[in-house]
């Protein structure tokens, strides 16, 4: 029983980890992009 479930648990765990890492990267990129756009608007005014 457990030997059949372990591969599914591992794959699910890696999938969740990959999604979390991608979300963290996207969040950091988005915040830096927002800062960059804010700086551009501040320079124009």
From TrEMBL:
Name recorded for this polypeptide? Uncharacterized protein
Print the keywords alphabetically.
Membrane, Transmembrane, Transmembrane helix
Query: Where does the sequence pass through the membrane?
Result: 6-24
């Amino acid at each position: 029983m457990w030997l059949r479930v372990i591969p599914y648990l591992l794959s699910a765990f890696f999938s969740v980890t990959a999604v979390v890492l991608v979300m963290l990267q996207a969040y950091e990129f988005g915040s830096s992009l927002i800062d960059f756009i804010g700086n551009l608007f501040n320079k124009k005014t």
